[in-house]
Amino acid sequence: ERHADWTAYFEEELRHGDWRAVVRTWSERLAPGLSGGALHGLLRACHAVRAVQNADTLPRRRELAQGLAYWATCYYS
Questions:
Q1: Which of 34, 45, 68, 71 fits a 20 to 30 Å CA distance from 11?
Q2: pTM of the predicted model, to two decimals?
Q3: Whole-angstrom Cα distance, residue 63 to residue 51?
Q4: Which distant-in-sequence residues (6+ apart) come within 8 Å of 6 by Cβ?
């Protein structure tokens, strides 16, 4: 139920900040939640990081926001 909130939060963070810092900060916070459904969010985030490294575009940052949001939603639920 909080996925939309997390997505909006991460989209804002990634729009104005250094995406590497956002990933570094949140991967440390969310790492304890790597069991179960949270693994899917990690995989989405990892694929998005690879894509953003190749070409830093708004759609790729949005995908990164989606991956982080899914991970956070699973972890904090």
A1: 34
A2: 0.82
A3: 9
A4: 68, 69, 70, 72, 73
- Look at residue 36 in the predicted model and tell me its pLDDT: 63
pLDDT tens digits, the chain, 77 residues: what are they? 788 999 999 999 999 889 999 999 999 998 887 766 667 888 899 999 999 999 999 999 999 999 999 988 888 87
DSSP-derived secondary structure for the chain: --HHHHHHHHHHHHHHS-HHHHHHHHHHHHGGG-STTHHHHHHHHHHHHHHHHH---HHHHHHHHHHHHHHHHHHH-
Residue 3 CA to residue 16 CA, distance in Å, equals 20
